[in-house]
Amino acid sequence: MVNTAIIFPGQGSQFPGMARELFDQHLEARALLTRANDILGFSLTDSMFAGSDEDLRRTDVTQPAIFVHSVAQFVARPDFVPASTAGHSLGEFSALVAAGVLKFEDALPLVARRAQAMQAACEEQPGTMAAILGLDDAVVEAICQEITDGGHVVVAANYNCPGQLVISGSAEGVARACEALKAAGAKRALPLPVGGAFHSPLMQSAAAALAEAIEKTTFSAARCPVYQNVDAQPHTDPAEIKANLLAQLTAPVRWTQLVQRMAADGTTDFLECGPGKVLQGLVKKIVPTATVGSF
């Protein structure tokens, strides 16, 4: 029996012109995109449709743009009911809207606040990230711990798929880790063009800034299980979901473990909803027998 999950991408999936076709072809999506401009108080759609790559790399634009695109694509098919949802980092907010936990009007201000808080944290505690290819997770974790014990911040941040783990921390910590990981046999250690050390302890001030906004927002029981990044487990309880969403800023994205758990729970089909196709490739590397596609 087919068991279909909807999965939502995170930061990095944006591109100039994103959502233009949605806006032109679907009334529901057009109404949502227009509402987003009103909520934010500026024309997000101008940045999405006509913005440059540089414009879309700004965290305060990128995160709302990806979130709005993803939700607009979902609402364009109102008759589709997923068996479960999940999202990679930022994409978890879209997954919560699709599961009925958050209303769009409540989620978008949270996404905007998250982006602002993360940008402020990046300026307060500069950092960076790097993709490590071709090593077991345990080896990456052990080397990061050694460097952290030596006084430099670096942690495993994104478990994207087997053999692909992103590390995050201070510039010095990440640089030292990259050298040590290459010496340990990593095929590649690629610095990423990001604005900060996301999903690391250096985002602690962002978590504190977001906590108040999350506490003031209404979270409802999920209509279907939402698999969350922090623990890779399915959740429907609003209190648990709220706590996990807040913890996500400083905790790793356990995407590999999350997809494995979804498959173990019976998910057979994964449909990516939002800009890009990155998650489809990751899912096939994690569960080769899964069926993947675009929503």
Write structural notes for this entry.
The chain is an alpha/beta fold and 295 residues long. It has two domains: 4-123 and 201-294, Malonyl-Coenzyme A Acyl Carrier Protein, domain 2 (3-Layer(aba) Sandwich); 128-191, Alpha-Beta Plaits. 49% of the residues lie in helices and 15% in strands. It is built from 13 helices and ten strands. The protein has a six-stranded mixed β-sheet with strand order 8-7-2-1-9-10, with helices on both faces. A hairpin with a 6-residue loop joins strand 7 and strand 8 (234-235). Helix 2 (27-40) runs antiparallel to helix 5 (59-75), helix 5 packs antiparallel against helix 7 and helix 7 packs antiparallel against helix 10. The model has no long low-confidence stretch (mean pLDDT 93).
Briefly note the structural class of the backbone: alpha/beta
Give the overall pLDDT as a whole number.
93
CATH class of the largest domain: Alpha Beta
The beta-strand count equals: 10
Strand content: 15-25%
The H/E string reads EHHHHHEHHEHEEHEHEEHHEHE
Provide tags for this entry.
10 strands, 2 domains, 4-stranded antiparallel sheet, 295 residues, 6-stranded mixed sheet, alpha/beta, Malonyl-Coenzyme A Acyl Carrier Protein, domain 2
Please specify the SSE layout and strand pairing:
Elements: E1 4-8, H1 20-25, H2 27-40, H3 44-50, H4 53-57, H5 59-75, E2 84-87, H6 91-98, H7 104-124, E3 128-133, H8 137-149, E4 154-161, E5 164-169, H9 171-183, E6 188-191, H10 204-215, E7 226-227, E8 234-235, H11 238-247, H12 255-264, E9 269-272, H13 278-286, E10 291-294
Parallel strand pairs: 1-2, 1-9, 2-7, 9-10
Antiparallel strand pairs: 3-5, 3-6, 4-5, 7-8
Helix pairs in contact: 2-5, 2-7, 5-6, 5-7, 7-10, 8-9
